[in-house]
Amino acid sequence: MIYLLTDSTACISRKEAREMGVILIPMGYTRDGKDAFQEGYIEESVAWAKNWQDLSPFSTSQVSTSSFLDVFLSLKEQGHQALCLTISSRLSGTYQNAVKAAEEAGEGFYVLDSRTTAGGLYLMLRQARQRLNEGMAIEDVMEELRAMRRLSHTIFTIQDMNPLRRSGRLGYVRSSVSTLLNLRPLLMLQDGSVVSHSLARGKQDQLRQMLLGLSGNPREVIIQECGDEEAADALEERMREKGLEVIRRQIGIVLAIHLGLPVLSIAWVESKEAAN
Fold first, then answer.
1. What is the predicted pLDDT for the residue at 175?
2. Residue 36 CA, distance from chain mean position
3. Are residues 61 and 112 in the same domain?
4. pLDDT tens per residue across span 40-63
5. CA angle 209-246-253, nearest 5°?
6. Domain CATH number, residue 243
7. Fewer CB atoms inside 10 A, N or C side of the chain?
8. What is d(CA 272, CA 219) in angstroms, rounded to the nearest whole number?
9. CA-closest candidate to residue 9, choices 51, 50, 47, 38
10. What is the DSSP letter of 168?
11. What is the distance between the alpha carbons of residues 258 and 67, in angstroms, rounded to a whole number?
12. Rounded distance, CA 252 to CA 267, Å?
């Protein structure tokens, strides 16, 4: 069998992992530098995140090489292969660690940098499973996923820029961006890095800007949130009015630590017709 592997920023549930044949490798996080935890399936992660309004005492750690290697070697002993999709290499060292583990495990283990995370990573996993179930070779699946990530987009908005600045995950974003005067920054993932998208004045303008940011005539859009269910509901209503299929998902604690609370995001893949 060909298994899929991913890190926990894919924000998938235990049920989804079982249905897609995905093995979830947890990201780690600590509180005050001493209490250590592992991020699990999304239902567990969200339940834990709701216990904390202030995530500033927390920090995160990438998935280690040994964590990947243990899974690879276990699968190898059972005669299986694996395709591993990770959070963007520009956001975490997880991808490099997975590559090292695959090289040590030997033939039959492949790693792809998704250049995204959360909803975008979930969409790639779903596509990979569909193609593998159809009998496509792993190398051809990887080639299709490379093309897919060029058409993948994520826009998100946060309440406070400081958590993201502290995490060191920002690309080029103006230092003046803030939530003063009710300005809300909209950011996006561009080739795997976080960059500025636009500024919105208040929540209603924030939702309007997110709708305007949709490009490429997508058939479906993922709305993902942590701590902002009301805004996600309003955004979903507007998208359905435009005839879009909406998938609601939640964001786990590791990404929430980096982004702060609340956070709201959309992810989608351009239609092939628009791309052509």
1. 42
2. 22
3. yes
4. 999 988 777 666 667 888 899 999
5. 80
6. 3.30.1180.10
7. C
8. 10
9. 38
10. T
11. 22
12. 15
Please state at what angle helix 138-150 crosses helix 118-133, rounded to 10 degrees. 150
Tens-digit pLDDT profile for residues 143-169: 999 999 999 999 999 876 666 666 555
Q: In 3-state terms, what secondary structure has residue 86?
A: strand
- What is the DSSP track for 9-70? GG---HHHHHHHTEEEEPPEEEETTTEEEE--SHHHHHHHHTT-S--TTEEEEPPPHHHHHH
Helix, strand or coil for residue 276? coil
**Nearest by Cα to 149 from 183, 125, 178, 177:** 125
The owner of tokens 């280690």 is 64
Kindly report whether the peptide bond that precedes residue 262 is cis, defined as omega within 30 degrees of 0: yes
Domain boundary among 150, 184, 214: 150
Give Cβ neighbours of residue 68 (< 8 Å, ≥ 6 apart): 5, 25, 84, 97, 98, 100, 101, 102
The domain tally of the chain equals 2
For the CA atoms of the chain, what is the radius of gyration? 18
Among 105, 21, 33, 91, CA closest to 62 = 91
Query: pLDDT for 232-256, tens place per residue?
Result: 999 999 999 999 999 999 999 999 9
Q: Domain span at residue 94?
A: 2-150
211 and 146 co-located in one domain? no
Pair 178, 199 in one domain: yes
Task: Write the CATH number for 107.
Answer: 3.40.50.10170
Question: Which DSSP symbol is given to 102?
Answer: H
